Amino acid sequence: MPYIYQKQSRRHFIKILAGGAGAVAAMGILPSFRLVDPKTLKTALFSDTHIPVDVSETYRGFSMVDNLKAVVKEVSNSNVHSAIITGDLARLEGKPGDYTELKTLLSPLAGEMPVAMTLGNHDRRDHFLDVFPGHPGQRQAIKDRYVLVLEHPAVRFILMDSLVFTNQSPPLGLLGKAQREWLDGYLKGHRDKAVILFFHHTLGDNDGELADVDRLFRIIAPRKQVKAVVFGHSHVYRYDVRDDIHLINLPATGYNFRDQDPVGWVESDITADGGSFILHAVGGNLEQNGREKKLTWR
Length: 298
Ligand SMILES: [Zn+2]
Known about the structure:
Layout: H1 7-17, H2 20-26, E1 41-46, E2 58-59, E3 62-63, H3 64-77, E4 82-86, H4 96-110, E5 115-118, H5 125-131, E6 138-139, E7 148-151, E8 155-159, H6 177-189, E9 194-198, H7 213-220, E10 226-231, E11 238-242, E12 245-249, E13 262-270, E14 274-284, E15 292-296
Parallel strand pairs: 1-4, 4-5, 8-9, 9-10, 10-12
Antiparallel strand pairs: 1-13, 2-3, 6-7, 7-8, 11-12, 13-14, 14-15
Helix pairs in contact: 3-4, 4-5, 6-7
Bound molecules: zinc ion.
Zinc ion is lined by residues 48, 50, 88, 233, 235, 252.
């Protein structure tokens, strides 16, 4: 039996993951949430949608709008409970119209499940918040940062904010001291569940990656409840490990930079002990479409 139909856990999930009825009402949408298995959080993971205000725009032969439509359709037809998009939501400059178009494209999902987003180097926080004033989960009080905590009975998602400059080169990311100190304190006080972190930037040491990655790992490596970090940015789908923490680099939904990389989304089943991740490629290299990756948490 794939699901446990418990009304209580469903209410629990709706209340906490959605941030309460007030937050849902604030979004102007009243989602009819799906039934939730309290042992497994099923989430659609995608990234780098790069939605343009001009819906006819293409890049490297990809229509970002058509790709997101295809992904939304597949996610809607799947049995996931929630969706997370790890940044570069907007095409390049984070224009208000990019987010308006994104909201329209996501509306079939927003009616069915919580859809939570992080911001990338092609996003504008102010424009994003104008179009998406509501949010799932609990927003944390960190100045000029968009940080959410989403709770499920088995796992806690922390969505962080690595956006510092919009559309600059190199496209570096930074969590910054205030956000790192908040995370340190939060993890000290919340050890009861597996934690997965999400943000936009990759974890290498190039100028266009997360500049404070070593300082981040000094905080999270000793905190055994942190199991994985999920991010986008590279438009490359790959898995790595650092300090026994799994690093999951999501493929882009909008377009790839190299023909060898898939474009699409990842269907995840996450439990207290590990996760299963299935690639759903809608474009680019389709060779790995349907391939499952299983991870065990430390
Ligand atoms: Zn991108």
